[in-house]
TrEMBL record:
Keywords: Oxidoreductase
UniProt keyword Oxidoreductase, yes or no: yes
Highest taxon of the lineage: Bacteria
InterPro entries xrefs: F420H2_bilvrd_red/Heme_oxyg, Pyridox_Oxase-rel, Split_barrel_FMN-bd
Gene Ontology CC, one term: cytosol
One MF term in the entry's GO annotations: oxidoreductase activity, acting on the CH-CH group of donors
A Pfam cross-reference name: Pyridox_ox_2
Protein name in UniProt: Pyridoxamine 5'-phosphate oxidase family protein
Organism: Streptomyces morookaense
Record lineage: Bacteria, Bacillati, Actinomycetota, Actinomycetes, Kitasatosporales
């Protein structure tokens, strides 16, 4: 049974609201690849964007590697996931205000997002925006598999 997603399904799933897990190689040799949860945005056919601290380990490692991966999933049955990997095509420094606001509004409700942005304005001013072009996709949708056992 093929559990892979179509191009349209995988792009729509990635565009959905999930917390992503960003992965990047850590060549310092003291640990496995760095994996951290992140807020992200994606529009079908476009770039994955992730906002992070300019001087954070994540930001430094991604800039040095020139690429990263992102995995998102459904945490309830029937399970699905999409993982993308690709090159960083741009680093916006500083983060354009419209992108910062859009990301906050993607993850927070209309009343909380402005308060979050105001309360964190000094820390957010130290952020960069990473833009990645999806190059490799890995997907699984266990809906059909799960239906066989219902």
């Amino acid at each position: 049974m093929d559990i892979g997603m179509s191009v349209e399904d995988r792009q729509n799933f990635l565009a959905g609201l999930h917390v992503g897990v960003l992965g990047v190689d850590d060549p310092r040799g003291v640990s496995a690849p760095l994996l951290v949860p992140v807020w992200y945005d994606y529009r079908p056919g476009g770039e994955v964007i992730v906002q992070t601290g300019r001087d954070s380990a994540k930001g430094r490692l991604v800039r040095d590697a020139g690429r990263f991966s992102l995995c998102v999933q459904d945490e309830t049955a029937p399970y699905r996931y999409v993982s993308v990997e690709g090159p960083v095509v741009a680093v916006d420094d500083p983060v354009p205000p419209a992108d910062r606001e859009a990301l906050a509004h993607r993850y927070l409700d209309a009343g909380t997002a402005p308060a979050y942005l105001e309360a964190n304005r000094h820390q957010l001013a130290e952020d960069i925006l990473l833009r990645m072009r999806p190059q490799r996709w890995r997907t699984a949708d266990f809906s059909a598999f799960a239906a066989e056992f219902s």
